[in-house]
Amino acid sequence: MLIVQIGAILLALLIGSILARREYKNFTIEEKEQFKRELSHPILVVLHVLDQIGYIIFFIGFIFSSIALKYIAFVLIGLGWIINGADMWEADKKRGLIFIFLGSLTFITTSLLALNTFWI
Fold first, then answer.
1. Which tens digits make up the pLDDT trace of 3-21?
2. Selection from 75, 39, 38 nearest residue 55 by Cα
3. How far is C-alpha 17 from the chain's CA centre?
4. For residues 4 and 14, what is the distance between their CA atoms, to the nearest angstrom?
5. What is the C-alpha end-to-end distance of the chain, expressed in Å?
6. What residue spans define the domains of the chain?
7. Could you give the CA distance from residue 77 to residue 51 in angstroms, rounded to a whole number?
8. pTM for the structure as a whole
9. DSSP string, 103-117
10. How confident is the model at residue 117 (pLDDT cuts 50, 70, 90)?
11. What is the DSSP track for 41-55?
């Protein structure tokens, strides 16, 4: 069963990378240059993919039945939603506010549950 779960994670990563590569090929020359400029600041890239990193860590924590990894994953997901919501705020205030609210709620709830679990 463990092999099937690890295979599912690897398959999800493979499909994600294939879809990202296909999307990059469809970019215009201007979009490719803008993408390269954005990649020159790696901290910004990491901040915008915190939620995806959290999803991967959650599935890894699920496979290994690690509560600590699940808490770390939900904190990363919450932070990622907050950052992405703040970035969305410029284009769509309502959607950005929803993401910020959900991210904050996830972050606070996870933090309180983690404190309760580790202190008892």
1. 877 787 788 788 878 888 8
2. 75
3. 15
4. 15
5. 32
6. 1-40, 41-120
7. 4
8. 0.72
9. HHHHHHHHHHHHHHH
10. low
11. SHHHHHHHTHHHHHH
